[in-house]
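All the exercises in this workshop are built on plain-text protein records. Sequence and backbone structure share a record, each on its own labelled line. The structure tokens are whole numbers drawn from a learned vocabulary of backbone shapes. The record below serves as our worked example for the rest of this section.
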Amino acid sequence: MKLVLMCGGVGTKMWPASRMSRPKHFLPLINGKSLFEINYEVLRRKYEAKDIFVQTTPQQVELVRKAVPEILPENIFVEPELRNHGPATGFLAGKLMKISPDEVFMNIQTDVIRQPEEKFLETIEEVEKLIQKEGKLVTGGIRLDRIVGGIDFIVGGKVAKEIEGMKIYKTKRWVMRDEADSYKAEIEGGVIFGHANHYAWTPRLMLEAYKRLKPDWYAAIEKMMAADFDEEVVKKEYGQMGKGPVEEVTKVELANGYVFECAFDWIDFGTWESLINYELKIKNYELNGIEIDAKSNYVKSDKFTALIGVENLVVIETDDALLVMPKSESGRVGEVVDRLKAEGKTELL
């Protein structure tokens, strides 16, 4: 089994701590450890270092090496630029094709954590067995009882396998987030999952799907493989791949594939509010200061802070920036980054 930690994004909604030079998955957010370190350490409990890979960007390679020096240099796959998950997944499948074409791999996001960790490791093992037996694409889903805006859905069919509380379903339909109304009756009448990624397959089968469904992407990947991923060839060919989601391939293949119901909590740190809620849940937050007639506030600053008469306020301070907002507005932090880009204030990005 090959595990690929995906870490190419920045996490703009966690500005000003998350920057291009140090994205959120490398920040010491939880008990002094980064999300990247936590995810790597979980995998190492069961898998050898040689079977754990990282896909990242040139800007983050050194961060990967500093965070976990144990990672083998040849196990770090470097995308020359960000072109969305479609090209990225094809690229890593091509890299793994040169290493172990018929061994199962799984993509693992590094900006989330999964608990209990043992359940996640058990899930990986069962997914590997299923793919070895059936040769079908597998992904993960979070069971829902209603349509939730802003996410893609999977409608599950029959239960194909059940192991100690974890169920794996045949997929019935993939529904993009903007198609939910068209399939509302089917979604509400069936077993539905919010997509939680964890795509798993073999490199050979993934590339065969790319060849059928996205021949333009496949052509570029094929040229990179033929050149043994020569740096100049990769830069040229990858840069010419059209940006797009991997779902342009996987939503078709999942019609004959499977979705596993996450038997673990999938904790996504997409905003400051999500981190705050998690820290409060595990009792990992203490204000460095005092509150007077104030409550439910969150301050991340090295300075002693006094809060008077305010509620649900978030204050995030770095060496060069200060963010102040109501907790309920944490989803809008990306707008600050957009404004900084528009005004050319690259030093704050």
In short: The chain has two domains: 2-268, 272-348. The chain is about 30% helix and 25% strand.
